[in-house]
Every structure is written in C-alpha cells, then in structure tokens.
Amino acid sequence: MIISMHIPKCAGTTFRSILIQCFGEEKILFDYADQMTHRGKVVTTIPPGIEVIHGHFAMDKYDELFPDAALITWLRDPIEKTISHYYYWLRNPNNENIPLHQKIIDNKISLEEFGQQPISIDLFTNEFAGKKITDFAFIGITEHFEDSVKLFMNIFNIKKEIRYQSDNINPNKKITDNYPDGRYKKNMSDFNQKDIELYNLAKEELQKKISKLM
After folding, report:
1. What is the pLDDT along the chain (214 residues), one digit of tens a residue?
2. Taking the domain 2-213, which CATH number applies?
3. How far is residue 13's CA from residue 11's CA, in Å, rounded to a whole number?
4. Fewer C-beta within 10 Å: the chain N or C terminus?
5. Interior CA angle at 147 toward 158 and 130, to 5°?
6. Alpha-carbon distance 31 to 27, whole Å?
7. What is the residue extent of each domain of the chain?
8. Rounded distance between C-alpha atoms, residue 135 and residue 96, angstroms
9. Closest CA to 191 of 86, 107, 121
10. Is residue 54 a contact partner of residue 4, using CB atoms and an 8 Å limit?
C-alpha cells in the first residue's frame, strides 16, 4: 500500500494525475475529507483492490490499518507555499465553505495575517505527525519536479510513459514575487523554522538519490 499525503500547493494535484496514469484510477482511494491542521478519524477499513491512498490528511491517519505502508509526499519552499496558498484562495471561490478562505476573498485578512494562521505555520512538521524523513519511501520537491518524478518512478519500478502539466498555476505570480522589501518572507521564516529545516533536509536527500541514478 502507498499512502500519499497531498499538502496544499505542493504539486499534489499534478501528482494525482501521475498516480492515476501509473496505477489506474480504480486502484486509488482519494481521501479529501479532512482539512489540513484538523485530524480526521483513524481509518480501519477501505474498499478492496486499493493500492494507493492520496489526499489531504495527516500522515498517521492510516497507521493502524497499514503499519508497513510506503509513505510518500511532496514539499515546497515553505514561504513560497504560503504565498501561493493565499493567492490561490484569493482568486478561487470558497466552495468548501472554509471560514478563513472566505475572509481572504472578502479582503478581511492580509497575506501577512494569513502567514500567522495555524495552516501557515510549520504545516509540514505538523502533518508529518511525528514521522521523520527516513520514514518516507519518497519525498518529492516541487522546485525539482521532473527529477522527483524520475526518482518516484525508479523507487516503485514503474516503467510506463506518463504525461503531465502543472495545474493550479497562479496567473498573478509576479504579485507574490514583489512583496514589499522582503519583510513578509523574513517574518514567515521566523514562524517556520521547523518546516524550513525539514524542507532543506528533504531537498538534500532528493539530490543524493538523484545523483545515484545518473
């Protein structure tokens, strides 16, 4: 069993399409019932024939049912992820009725204020639920997407040809690149020391494993 945690704004939607091509949609359970930062119920049963579980949930959700599962996820520069998440919510309707999302749409919360919400502070660390990088079979890095996909295919011995394109692209990305005087990124770095360390370690591990494939 492969347990794939989709952290928002970390290539999870694109990776979902890759999983479908690799395993077939009928063998994948998509679990988007939980909101990140809110623990869902422990799962004790799933439909037969499932080989992959992919969605928004903490990494310990399926521990009881699949203690030996191969754990996988994707990470992204924590500050860039938060900026991307804010602008994604700003330009998209609140179909899931999330109060914080609605505040952003109504211009009642700024980017800097969003960066101080629980969903923006050390989210990776929280959703890892105590697990270490070494507990994962694969951690992709969004900024090194192509190399990450190659590594994933190698680890799971997948020989199929796949096609993909980046989804959920922010058409206003230049706005996020020009936040006044870098103050926001400095403040967010202070709030996300654990995630920055986790991200850097995962990136180093990826680069080591990729170098062995060459």
Report:
1. 999 999 988 888 899 999 999 999 999 999 987 654 445 566 778 889 999 999 988 889 899 999 999 999 999 999 889 888 888 888 888 888 888 888 888 888 888 888 888 888 898 998 898 999 999 999 999 999 999 999 999 999 999 889 887 655 454 554 445 454 566 677 778 888 999 999 999 999 999 999 988 7
2. 3.40.50
3. 6
4. C
5. 85
6. 13
7. 2-213
8. 32
9. 121
10. yes
- Residue 179: CB atoms within 10 A of its CB come to 15
Written as one letter, the residue type at 26 is: E
Closest CA to 53 of 36, 70, 40: 70
Are the beta carbons of 88 and 168 closer than 8 angstroms? Answer: yes
Nearest to 136 by CA among 119, 121, 148, 118: 148
Residue 8 CA from chain centroid, whole number: 5
- Residues contacting residue 146 through CB under 8 Å, at least 6 positions apart: none
Give the closest residue to 85 by CA, choosing from 47, 120, 40.
120
Element (H, E) at 30: strand 28-31
